[in-house]
Amino acid sequence: MDDEWWPPETDDYFLYEVLGKSCRHLTRKERYLAYLRTDIWQKKREEALIRAERMCEKCHTSRYLDVHHKNYHRVGGDELPRDLQVLCRPCHRAAHVTVDQRSAIIESLRRKDSG
Ligand SMILES: [Zn+2]
Ligand SMILES: [Zn+2]
User: Which ligand neighbours the alpha carbon of 72 most closely?
Assistant: First the structure.
């Protein structure tokens, strides 16, 4: 599985093109949130919801749906269907806990290597 971390780096140049203003002064998190508000992401998000027939891909509920990035390799409008997953709020939260735990494990292994 790929290394995952949140928030992902969002390309400044891409944001400048889309939003018409520089986001360089923003934090990484703010830049990612700015991306999530763009029409480009809203379109990707809607396409993912249609593909999943507006159901959580884990538990099949149709309430409180989010579109989750399974990886962040193509953030910025180039996401492929396989990069995205429709999840309800509780399943989405669980997915991020797993990601965070994995990152923490990877980080502690790295520290052991260097120390
Ligand atoms: Zn669910
Ligand atoms: Zn997510």
Answer: 2
| Cis peptide preceding 90, ω within 30 of 0 | no
Shortest-distance ligand to the CA of residue 4: 2
CA distance 2 to 49: 24
pTM: 0.78
C-alpha 115 to ligand 2 mean position (Å): 32
pLDDT tens-digit profile of 67-101? 999 988 899 999 999 999 999 999 999 998 876 77
Torsion of CA 32, 33, 34, 38, to 10 degrees: 100
C-alpha span between 19 and 36 (Å, rounded): 12
User: CA 114: distance to chain centroid?
Assistant: 29
Cβ atoms of 92 and 66 within 8 Å: the answer is yes
| DSSP one-letter code for 10 | -
